[in-house]
């Protein structure tokens, strides 16, 4: 398929390493990162990965050793399955053809060969068909994405933050029974109405990280911080007392 114009990924070390970044820069590929600890930023990829893992688990439940041999077959099944949003298969979107599966051999044996079409006419028809296919898929996906956005917006807080606001950030603690909200920190940049850069301090080295608005909580005074952490501390104490008794 050739080199992509851009690659979207999470912020794993295998994606942020200098070797890969230098290689992508050399090839002219733009690298875009998703928000940390916010799976919704890469929802389509996460759903596909979950689908692949589920299919692999059903096949390798017996021994769990030959997943690498089954992976190409499972990917073929996914590429040949129509999307619920676009109503066509990924393979058809790329080639304007139905994927030829092993089962088709049962019906094709003994069938006469079709006449060879002229190359120029074939290329012209293929170009037109693919263009029409992409237009149709874009319309179908547009409707599906609007529906998904309405569903997501129902549970998303519509808050506009300003540079300089003092906020708490929601992270993933490395140790159990740690506070989920950390801070306070300050917003230093804005990428969009829902993505902000926060200056993180209090660790070995100050850093700046991007967060989704759902991962931020405005701090108006210090009592609010004590209220949030106090509830967590009280819950931990109650849990400890229950274990003692």
TrEMBL record:
InterPro entries, per the entry: Integrase_cat-core, Retrovirus_Pol_polyprotein, RNaseH-like_sf, RNaseH_sf
GO terms classed as biological process: DNA integration
Superkingdom classification of source: Eukaryota
The name this protein goes by in its record: Integrase catalytic domain-containing protein
Species classification: Eukaryota, Metazoa, Chordata, Craniata, Vertebrata
GO MF, any single term: nucleic acid binding
Gene3D superfamilies assigned: 2.30.30.850, Ribonuclease H-like superfamily/Ribonuclease H
PANTHER family: PROTEIN CBG26694, RIBONUCLEASE H
Domain Integrase catalytic stretches: 1-98
